[in-house]
Specification:
The protein has about 650 residues and is of the alpha+beta class. It has a domain at about 410-655: Biosynthetic peptidoglycan transglycosylase-like (Penicillin binding protein transpeptidase fold), CATH 1.10.3810. It has 16 helices and 28 strands. The protein has a 22-stranded mixed beta sheet that branches. A two-stranded antiparallel ribbon has the order 21-24. Strand 6 (about 160-170) and strand 7 form a beta hairpin. Helix 6 packs parallel to helix 12. The longest helix is centred in the N-terminal third of the chain and has 44 residues, at about 1-45. It starts with a helix and ends with a helix.
Length: about 650
């Protein structure tokens, strides 16, 4: 029995030795066959020349491959590498087809080049001999298809296990250069680990990347960490928009993709830590968002771009669902909806980005807040714009502590600073201690009613916002292609002047809206007091602020003594007080174009019962300058004679204007 066991063991050992001998004898042939098969497969699939200088076994399970190059037909070399060491499955050798399960690549160079319409890489994104997507033709533009091909190409060509040493990836075009240097890139068992330096033109970012990947299911999750104190700066923002955006850490994932009916839908998430945004049109200082995140569902198709309502955006502690669609087929159609859940008031204020809303920093409140917004526009029918915006508070919402600014300060005497171009130019007291302060009851009803008629007829009825005025402003701005109308209420003008600098940026407009909402909805200041403060701080000319100062400057009288024509004139220059001189000729007469404004405002006032029919009919569209303004405006040497002629022509002028 023992002898049989020994014989059996000897036969087994012999077979193993024979297998090893056969493996060694024929493995080179199998390797050559495999290499040739790979070359043929690549060259049949793509219009390229794929070359491998040599491939040899260096030990039982390792192959050294040298001189790999991928050169597109009629194009520059796309990829080269000095050498690759590949681990081989022994079982695959016996099957006659070698399978590499781990690659160690040294000195790899992937170089994408584009000159004009010619490049050496776009062939990789063409599938099944399809024609390339024509992104210049409006009727066939489909970035979803392009992105789907890009995702599948990247994932399908990702090896299961690879260790790159000195991997270099670059893109060069007529106006752009991108270089990526990776001293090491390891993909093993679905884990990604690398350090890299990315140079885009003159911008350099150093970062570390850790993550996981599952090429079969098109899943990837990666974290990018800044490798130095500069953070990671987003490219092109400074060049294209004149600003800067940096962050410390980015976590991003692609969880699912689905391409159907020419539309690509991708799902995933992203999170940014310590996002810093700097742009003068957003805010004066750096904007810091400590933590922001998004769970996204995005669809791209022919002339179609959508953010699904399942998309959730979080800024610090505040969370909102966002729905956005942009269609560009027969006409441009834009839809945007934003809705938040009920957010604890303290979480809302704490979530406001640092540096964006200085007056609101430090506010403490009870209760909850909830916001919703709905916007729709068809650019072929701009007048049909739809816009609704609501910030709702719970019944127990209340400010219990102010932060940097006490919003109720305007209920009493306070110090007001006037800003121009973001810089303080004058400071004065708003209250009885100032000789130029005037109570609302001491201002001519003509001036009060003219201002309300022209600036905000619904002031005593609305809660700080006039949605139809905002909608009309959006219509005008869309038609003009620029910001030419703001739709501001008197409340918004007051808040802008009292609490904010005069710089026009997005942060100021949003902060203005929040402060107006708080003052109006919490009844922090009465309407009469708001109007009174407004009448005492509004600019009316060169270093002229308030109704009392303006009445003296232009007419040498008290604000209670102003007549209808004087009131309408003062109202007319509120939008552009520094251009007050342009309203007059050298004789001190109002220019003819002012007559239309007089007719408009007085017509509305008489229809609303603010003036009588007789006052309307007797209104003459001119004023007599008696104050300091006369010395600045009247420059004609024969101005006194002109005044006598005006008196004679007064009745005739009124008849011509149809008053």
């Amino acid at each position: 029995m023992k002898k049989r066991i020994l014989i059996g063991a000897g036969v087994l050992v012999g077979l193993l030795l024979l297998s090893v001998v056969l493996l060694i004898m024929f493995r080179s042939r199998v390797l050559t066959y495999t290499i040739n098969r790979v070359i043929t497969k690549v060259e049949n699939k793509y219009p390229v020349d794929f070359t491998i200088e040599s491939a040899d076994f260096v030990n039982l399970r390792t192959v050294a491959i040298k001189g790999i190059a991928l050169v597109p037909h009629q194009g520059d070399t796309l990829f080269t590498t000095d050498n690759v060491h590949a681990s081989v499955s022994l079982r695959s050798i016996f099957k006659g087809r070698i399978v590499f399960y781990r690659l160690e690549v040294a000195n790899g160079y992937l170089t994408a080049i584009k000159h004009g319409d010619q490049d050496n890489f776009s062939f990789l994104m063409k599938r099944d001999q399809e024609e390339p997507v024509d992104t210049t033709s409006k009727g066939s533009r489909n970035y979803g298809k392009l992105l789907n091909n890009l995702i599948e190409t990247a994932f399908d060509n990702t090896p299961d296990q690879v260790d790159f040493k000195n991997l270099n990836v670059s893109y060069k075009s007529d106006n752009r250069t991108i270089d990526v240097r990776m001293p090491s890139l390891v993909i093993e068992d679905g884990n990604i680990n690398t350090e890299l330096t990315i140079r885009i033109d003159t911008l350099v970012n150093n970062m570390r990347v850790r993550g996981t990947i599952d090429p079969r299911d098109y899943n990837i999750a990666a974290s990018l960490y800044a490798a130095d104190s500069k953070g990671i700066q987003i490219p092109y923002v400074e060049k294209k928009f004149g600003g800067n955006v940096t962050f410390d850490t980015l976590h991003v994932s692609l969880k699912d993709k689905n391409y159907r009916n020419e539309r690509l839908t991708v799902r995933g998430s992203a999170m940014l830590n310590n996002l810093v945004v700097n742009h003068t049109k957003l805010a004066d200082e750096d904007i810091l968002i400590k933590e922001s995140a998004v769970n996204y569902v995005v669809t791209l198709g022919p002339n179609y771009y959508a953010v699904d309502s399942l998309t959730e955006v979080r800024v610090n502690k505040a969370v909102a669902n966002v729905y956005a669609v942009y269609q560009d087929a027969s006409s441009k159609i834009i839809d945007l909806k934003v809705k938040t859940k009920a957010v604890p008031a303290n979480d809302f204020f704490e979530s406001l980005p640092v540096g964006l809303f200085e007056n609101l920093e430090g506010i403490r409140a009870t209760g909850t807040l909830q916001y919703k917004m709905n916007f729709h526009v068809d650019m072929a029918q701009v007048d049909s714009v739809k816009f609704d915006s609501d910030l709702d508070a719970s019944k127990d919402f209340k400010i219990v502590q102010y932060g940097n600014t006490n919003l109720e300060k305007i209920n009493g005497t306070f110090t007001h600073t006037v800003y121009e171009y973001g810089k303080p130019v004058r400071t004065f007291t708003v209250g009885p201690a100032n000789n130029f302060f005037v109570r609302i009851g001491e201002v001519s009803p003509y001036l009060r009613n003219a201002i309300l008629t022209a600036e905000d007829a619904g002031f005593y009825r609305h809660n700080g916002f006039h949605e139809e005025a905002i909608r009309q402003a959006i219509v005008v701005n869309l038609k003009e292609g620029a910001f030419v109308r703001g739709g501001s209420t008197l409340s918004m003008q007051l808040v802008k002047n009292v609490f904010l600098t005069r710089k026009k940026n997005l942060a100021r407009k949003v902060e203005e809206a929040i402060i107006v909402w708080l003052i109006e909805n919490l009844d922090l200041v009465s309407k009469n007091r708001m109007f009174e403060v407004y009448l005492n701080i509004i600019e009316w000319g060169p270093d002229v602020y308030g109704a009392k100062d303006a009445s003296r400057f232009y007419f040498g009288k008290q604000p209670s003594e102003l007549n209808l024509a004087e009131a309408i004139f003062l109202t007319s220059i509120i939008p552009s007080p520094k251009r007050f001189r342009s309203s007059f000729d050298n004789y001190g007469n109002l220019r003819s174009y002012k007559a239309g404004y007089f007719r408009l405002i007085s017509g509305i006032m008489v229809r609303r019962g603010l003036i009588s029919q007789e006052e309307y009919e007797n209104l003459y569209p001119n004023v007599r300058l008696y104050g300091r303004a006369r010395d600045l405006i009247v420059t004609a040497p024969d101005a006194e004679n002109q005044e006598e002629e005006e008196e004679q022509l007064e009745l005739e002028t009124i008849d011509m204007l149809g008053f």
